[in-house]
UniProtKB/TrEMBL annotation:
Transmembrane segments: none annotated. Residues 1-18 form the signal peptide. This is DUF4468 domain-containing protein. The keyword Signal applies. It holds the Pfam family DUF4468. Keywords: Signal. It comes from Mariniflexile jejuense. It comes from the Bacteria.
Length: 197
């Protein structure tokens, strides 16, 4: 039940976040760099590979400590931390239930995503880098996890069109990564977290 609520909140925040664009007349947050960067996923894969987020007047130590606090709050555990170097790097391995949905009619399914990302800290900014995303089709227990490739999409045909039944997948990948990054940023900068899940 708790995971279902988290999924609903994730989708709500995705919709809110996806409508946040760069508007030349918009008031800029003084704590960030002027260009909002987000991940996109299309036939060419994930772009960019890393998102750098400047947090003005914040050193590596503060960014690192705030990130540790965010992990504890978001994941309710430090067990997701698989690697850490004080004030330099955090590597996270976690899952998100029913985060990728695809298929047609009776073959439509929603699966758990397993993901790994790193956060590095340097010169008043953090860098958010997805390392790996995979899923296993629950109907086939013998199947190994399927990796979601970052260099070229396996959900698009040779003409760059999304394969039938996978129309939502690129958006779901973008939403997962962008919402994790936005959640971290909001926590670090103590912004209103109304879009938080």
């Amino acid at each position: 039940m708790k995971k279902s609520i988290l999924l609903i909140l994730l989708l709500a925040s995705v919709l809110s976040f996806s409508q946040t664009g760069t508007n030349a007349n918009a008031k800029k947050d003084p704590t960030t760099n002027s260009n909002e960067k987000t991940f996109t996923y299309n036939s060419a894969g994930l772009n960019p590979n890393i998102v750098s987020v400047e947090v003005k007047n914040t050193n590596e130590s503060t960014l690192y400590q705030k990130s540790l606090e965010w992990i504890q709050e978001k994941y309710s555990s430090n067990n997701v931390i698989k690697k850490k170097e004080a004030n330099k790097l955090l590597r996270i391995e976690a899952t998100s239930n029913s985060a990728i949905c695809f298929g047609l009619d009776k073959d439509y399914t929603c699966e758990t995503l397993n993901y790994i990302f790193e956060i590095t800290f340097k010169n008043g900014e953090y860098r958010f880098e997805p390392i790996e995303i995979s899923y296993t089709v629950s109907k086939n227990k013998k199947e190994k996890a399927r990796d979601i490739t970052f260099k070229k999409s396996s959900f698009h045909d040779k003409n760059g069109e999304v394969d039938s039944g996978y129309e939502k997948v690129p958006f779901q990948i973008e939403a997962l990564l962008n919402n994790i990054n936005k959640s971290l940023f909001n926590f670090i900068t103590s912004n209103e977290q109304e879009d938080e899940w």
